[in-house]
Protein: Cytochrome B
Amino acid sequence: MYSLLLFLHSLGRWAVLGGLLYGIGRAYQGWVGGKAFSAHDNATRHTVATLAHVQLVLGYALYFTSPLLKTFRFRDAMHDPGTLFFGFQHVAAMTVAVVVLTIGSALAKRQPTSPTQFRTMALWFTAALLLIFLAIPWPFSPLANRPYFRFPF
Structure:
């Protein structure tokens, strides 16, 4: 179960990043280009937020079934960057990132004009992307490095 969750969460990372980059691209093109906020843009906004929520739920499931959490003590983790990262920093930053993305999605949906919809989506989604980039355990990260893909075997 744990290895399957780890695989799905690893795979979901790329779906979220790809969707978020696509959504940000559409938002900036629409904002700068003065385009109308179309049904496709709205579907993109909604899909990106949904992907992020699914990824967050997978992450929570992984977090609460992780062997790390059973032995995690914040006081002890302060001396181990990897334990601190997965025990606290990763889950906290990703939760905040998804909250930021959700707020941006909801605000963009409720804006009265296309330029403000695109601007809202672009700015909030970009802020969420920056938080996500900081909290991903990249292979080159000094905090906790993991491979680009985790396989269940």
The CA atoms of residues 28 and 91 lie 28 Å apart.
